[in-house]
Design goal:
Helix content is about 35%, strand content about 15%. It has an eight-stranded parallel beta sheet, with helices on both faces. The chain has ten helices and eight strands. The termini are far apart. The mean pLDDT is about 95. The protein has a single domain, classed as Ureohydrolase domain (Arginase, Chain A, 3-Layer(aba) Sandwich), CATH 3.40.800.10. The protein is of the alpha/beta class and about 300 residues long.
């Protein structure tokens, strides 16, 4: 029986300062994400948008950090929702900025721990997101999820991360913008770092296949976090953190096709879509198409259409 795909909206704008990401979940729905999945024969359950948990007082010694109470509230709500969804199907979290992964991956990790299986994380992003609340200079908490997932310090205001993911089970794939504090931390870690130079030199497939082989050998869960800025801004303009030199249309689909063929993906984030910056829904439609590839649509299944 085909696993149910569960759509969970996370209209989060608190992790950064450019407004618009809160419209992301609606944009994915308007772009036909559910219909695309159903056309592939996948049952779909749309759980709607998650409300944040009640705000509580939270403090951080770094004065640059903003919207801390709000981000903690989203983290608590999404962690609970993600853990529940993992027991019922394959959740897709519709963002919302990347701070949603503080909660989504926490819930997935709690489920994996109860199942006594290791969790692996594939981070498809221009940025490493390895800051802690203490090291970020911008104060943008969307730049901290990988550090939280890996169990780094400085997250005292947040719920303790359940079963932190060892760095060797994290793959940062497609990164091309890393701050100095993140760089120093990553040098001390065992994370798999596939920056764009690695992908240019080795090709888009070989490093991914090696990571997937490790997930398979460990019988692990695989959480994929897909940031719009993983893609080159020439094809995906609807993001507030554009970094030139991202993956092309064909490279991104190839990554998704290999993920589908692996059969390993157990949860997915779609983050940083800012419809206010889009061109007539172009980026939202591309992201929906990429999810289609992840769920099994082949190149020869695609109708010719204009993106104008």
């Amino acid at each position: 029986m085909t696993q149910t795909t569960i759509l969970i909206g996370a209209p989060i704008d608190s992790g950064q300062k450019r407004e618009g990401c809160l419209m992301g979940p609606a944009a994915y729905r308007v772009a036909g994400l559910a219909q695309s999945l159903e056309a592939l024969g996948r049952p779909v359950a749309d759980w709607g948008d998650v409300p944040p948990a009640p705000f509580r007082d939270a403090a951080c010694p770094n004065p640059a950090v903003h919207h801390l109470n709000e981000t903690v509230a989203w983290t608590e709500a999404l962690a609970a929702c993600a853990e529940e969804a993992m027991g019922q199907g394959l959740p897709i979290f519709l963002g919302g900025d990347h701070s949603l992964s503080l909660g989504s991956v926490a819930g997935v990790a709690a489920h994996a721990a109860k199942a006594s299986r290791p969790l692996f994380v594939l981070w498809l992003d221009a940025h490493s997101d390895y800051h802690t609340p203490l090291t970020t200079q911008s104060g943008n908490l969307h730049g901290t999820p990988v550090a939280y997932i890996a169990g780094r310090g400085g997250f005292d205001a947040f719920p303790p991360f359940p079963a932190p993911v060892p760095a060797e089970r994290i793959c940062l794939y497609g990164i091309r913008s890393v701050d100095s504090a993140e760089h120093s931390g990553l040098l001390e870690s065992d994370a798999t770092i596939c920056d764009m130079r690695v992908l240019d030199e080795r090709g888009i497939v070989a490093p991914l296949r090696e990571f997937l082989d490790r997930v398979r050998a460990a019988n692990g869960f695989l959480h994929v976090s897909l940031d719009v800025d993983f893609l080159d801004p020439s094809i995906a303009p609807a993001v507030g953190t554009t970094v030139p030199g991202g993956t092309t249309f064909r490279e991104a689909h190839l990554v998704m096709e290999h993920l589908h063929e692996s059969g390993l993906v157990t949860s997915l984030d779609l983050v940083e879509l800012n419809p206010f910056l889009d061109e007539r829904g172009r980026t939202a439609r591309l992201m929906v198409d990429l999810v289609g590839s992840l769920m099994g649509r082949k190149v020869f299944d695609r109708p010719t259409r204009s993106f104008g």
